[in-house]
Amino acid sequence: MIRLPSQSKSLWQDAWRRIRRDRLALWALGVIVLYSLVALCSKFGLLASTWDAEVGGPYASPSFENFKTIFGTDIFGRSVLYKVIHGTRVAMSVGLMTSLIAIPIGVTLGAFGGYFGGKVDDVIVWFYTTLSSIPGIMLLIAIAYILGKGLFSVYIALGITSWVSLARLIRGEFMKHKSREYVIAAEAIGAGHRIRIFRHILPNVLHIVIINMSLQFQIAIKSEVILSYLGLGVQGQPSWGVMIDDAKLELARGVWWQLTAATFAMFFVILAFNILGDALRDAFDPKLRKG
Amino acid sequence: MRYILVFSLLALIVGAACTPRRDIGNTLRVAQREKIKTLDPAHANDFFSGTAVRRTYEGLYQYHYLKRPYEVVPNIAAAMPAISADGKTYTIRLKQDVYFQDDACFPEGKGRRVVAKDFIFSWMRLADPKTASEVWWALDGRIVGLNEWREKLKQGDANSGTSHYDLPVEGLKAIDDFTLEVRLTREDPLFIHMLTMPATTVLAREAAEKYGQDLTTRSVGTGPFVLERFEQNQIIWTRHPKYRLETYPSEGEAGDREAGLLADAGKPIPFVDRIIDDVISEDQPAWLNFQQNNHDYLVKIPKDNAKNILTDDFKPTREVSERGMKLLSSPGVEFSYIAFNQTDPVVGGPKRKFLRQAMSLAYDEAPTIGMFYLGLGKKAESMIPPGVFGYDSEYKNKYREFNVAKAQELLAKNGFPEGKGLPELTYDLRSDPTARQVAEYFVRSMAKIGIRIKLNQVSWPELNSRIAKKQAQVWGGIVWVYDYPDPENGLQLLYGPREAPGSNKTSYKNPAYDVLFEKFIRTRDDKERLALIKRMRSIYEEDVPWIVAVHRNENRLTHSWLHNLKVHAFEYNSDKYLRVDAEARKRVLER
Amino acid sequence: MMAFVIRRLLYAIPTLFGVCLIIFTLFNLVGGDPAYQMLGKHATETQILELRRELGLDKSKVEQFFDYLKSVATLDFGRSYTTKQQITDMIWRGMPASLSLAIPAFIVEILLGLAIALLVSFYRGTFFDRAVVVLCVMGMSVSALAYILFGQYVFAYWLGLFPISGYDTDILYRFKYIALPAIIWVVVSLGINVRVFRTFVLDEVNQDYVRTARAKGQSEKKILFHHVLKNALIPVLTYVVIQIPVLITGSFLLENFFGIPGLGSITIDAIHNSDFPVIKAMTTIETLLFMVFALATDLLYSVVDPRVRMR
């Protein structure tokens, strides 16, 4: 067993130290943890499991008498608060699943391309250049058509359209790292390609994955809204996209609460991911932050 | 540089706000709620395209604008047809002062007079397989020799130019320039209705030859308006200068005089000089534009705007009355339904009759009318809507009452007590927020008797395709709008031989029903027809191939300066009767 | 230089082929059967067969692929299923509308973004810098749909500052219709631009020549606007060029809500109608434009920075 090179460890420690000193980033992290908890509670039925139940008359405006109607009700008299919470679960799961699909593809292809170079690289670069030449939204639409509608296709469609930027970055890093001393040293003591890629180089470029993920998460959440507007999104359950889609009819009659609730729910989490993403980038790449 | 930027942005805003409104004169401004797909009469098969086609193309007959029940009256024809004793030969006299609009396709650009041969050409064009018309069904199988001509084209060389239009069709003859003789394959009381549709309107051969498929964005018609410009988002029409003398009807149904609908009786139409159609597909801009007086009337009132125009007991709100806006509402000749694919092993066929009955009983219709249709509509008991022969206001469908207990009983009888053992059903619907909310309501209703349903939202054509291929299991949010005011149009929807992809979308098959239907279309006597309708009703009522839902109303919201609007379910081009009080409008706009 | 251009062009060929293959696979192999969709409520089985033959759908997939390649080469995509219009015509008619919204909005968005980026770079590290960056991020965190719904309701209807929707073929009158969607466009994209441009500027600020200039005692203002701006313009220009295809193909949401008859609104209709030839044509055109402009960017780069050619 060959130990991790020590520079990697200090990189992570260093970054964590920086983040801890950044109050804004900590707030952002807190918001994300809170959203994740809400999503998890909703997932396990601890929160808003009764989003489908009527809690008042149709289109009741927000009132503080009952915490269920704090954001008012929708056309069927369902609690907008509960719908927002259920939407949180949908949004977080879209972000997470998209990342889970995109990261392995992006990392593997990027690593192989950067590490092996030559023909392998050519094919991989050809593949992602091709894919990224096609406008993302059209690709999303086409995939949603093919897979049928629903949450599952949203995961897949967003997953397979969003790995390219990650693959590009990872490939670049691998090209830099493969000729570094520590990798050559590992080769000298007999480590094979697999060990060199996954055990040696990968830990040193993993921070890119983290930074990229915080970016990917918010793109996924925003895309869900557009897909829902096009009728290609989540089916049969509330999501922020579906709520905003509903709201485009309601606003003119003065029902502003559904739009507002969904927009703000989205706003805070995307804001948090943006701030955290920036903080992470600065933390791992201190050169930029000075200036 | 920064100052320049800020300044230019400011200039943009100020400039935008200050650009003066151009005087619009005697123009009618309408918001069309969908893109106009085509102006070609052989392809127009939706409401909005039909409306656009009717602006400029005319047929032999039309429906009387004011009279109800709907009555066929002459348009280009000089009088009602002379029908032979066997009911198979129609002799139709044409008006002699009907001219095509001026267009480059005619010699010297001058529109010529319409003759009987033009109709023969137009109908052959509809039959031509190369046209691939969506509305060919209107004449399919009706005229002697027309289907044979179509078959011959299919087999022959398809690229032989247009000479095949010179071949004779047995049943279509121009006796002289202004007399058309049509021979039908059978006695056909519905034929006269076909002659009112956009599909059978008259098109000049010169235009078809010169423009071909480009007729989708141009038009060469005889009607009251001439296309000035066709853009995706805006279509502008101007008055046809050579339009013959047609007058506003001088009779109507009871109440029309009081409603001011006969004030213009006998005056020449059209009243407006220009029509601007703005295509606005989103609800919010459509509603806000109407509120800001940018359109004279509104079609398809967004359901969520109900509260702005109607109070809780469905009376106009104060704001509406103060501004002189009027909500016109009249029963649409249509019904909406939730359908079961009869070839599906889970919900279809006689074995699952109780399941379908249960679902129908568990679906509480009454609240949907307030929720989705502005409270303007009627719960449907059968597929024959009010205003059509055979509508029975007394009739109550056994399985359309709301009765959860009975539903549960029937569900158990079919082997699914409390829904146990029944797989999750799939409900297909069109991607549209309202259709989705209707579906959600259905899902919630079914959940109460333990039936689980998954929604599958697809585009409108995709939904049609899934239904046609019998892939859809349960589907809803679909409305059958009658093509003509005869019960046949609704009853044929369950006729076995017309199963999907034909018009019998549920692929319902019941030999007893089919026999009765075949008898029905041959019957002329009203009493017998009524008896047959009742017998057919008792069959499909029991089988529940679909849950008939609502007869919606057709609604229009108008501004105070618009006159003569009466909601008409078949006359798409009501706009030729409309009068705008331009002065009154100008006063409001300048305020 | 010539060799570089030729090499870069040759590289584009396999990508082009790959793009065609993917688009074809997505739309022809797995897309729906339009014949069922087109004939409407009274269709019969024989009519459907006839229509399929008419549309060339009964040909083998290989033949269909070559038909598609031919349409890409000639840029003739046939006719739309729903409107029966020539797709090429639709595109030529829609493009000016899309551009008349996109060009002013884009120019303002870029210039304003650059100006703010320079300003915050000048005050880098201060509270002002921080605040502007956070503000930008906040602006980016709201869904475009929400901006549109609120913007239209509040500024056009409530305050009556703008027309609610519409478009005018007369270019002078068009501006009043374009103003509000253009402002919303700028608001939606300004945050992203400021952030990106700020990074570009700060990248330059850290370069040696800046230190040298500073050592020579030049004022910070002069350094920023003379030296830094000049060099930062290279990545800015690249960023701008690569976005041009998106401008041409228009914005779905804005065009649809504000009734602008551009390519975005054509595309959204095609999606609602499953009009595959149109979706396919729009995808192809957008992809081709993207490739052309990516190529242009590369060439541009190689002109201003000869080191690129060595790669």
Secondary structure: elements and pairs:
The complex is a heterotrimer of chains A (291), B (591) and C (311).
Chain A: H1 6-21, H2 23-43, H3 80-116, H4 118-133, H5 136-147, H6 151-161, H7 164-177, H8 181-188, H9 193-229, H10 240-250, H11 257-284, H12 286-289
Chain B: H1 2-18, E1 27-32, H2 47-56, E2 61-63, E3 72-74, E4 82-83, E5 89-93, H3 116-127, H4 146-155, E6 172-176, E7 179-183, H5 191-194, H6 205-211, E8 225-230, E9 234-239, E10 246-247, E11 268-269, E12 274-279, H7 283-291, E13 297-299, H8 306-309, H9 318-322, E14 326-331, E15 334-340, H10 353-362, H11 366-372, E16 377-379, H12 404-413, E17 425-430, H13 433-447, E18 453-458, H14 460-468, E19 474-481, H15 488-491, H16 511-522, H17 526-543, E20 546-548, E21 550-558, E22 562-563, E23 579-580, H18 582-590
Helix pairs in contact in B: 10-12, 16-17
Chain C: H1 2-29, H2 34-38, H3 45-54, H4 61-74, H5 87-122, H6 127-140, H7 144-158, H8 171-205, H9 208-215, H10 220-249, H11 252-258, H12 263-272, H13 276-304
Helix pairs in contact in C: 1-4, 1-13, 5-8, 5-10, 6-8, 7-8, 7-11, 8-10, 9-10, 10-13, 11-12, 12-13
Structure characterization notes:
The complex is a heterotrimer of chains A (291), B (591) and C (311). Chain A has 291 residues and is mostly helical. Helix content of chain A is 74%, strand content 0%. Chain A is built from 12 helices and no strands. With 591 residues, chain B is of the alpha+beta class. Chain C has 311 residues and is mainly α. The mean pLDDT of chain C is 84. Chains B and C meet through helix 1, helix 7 and helix 14 of B and helix 2, helix 3, helix 5, helix 7 and helix 8 of C.
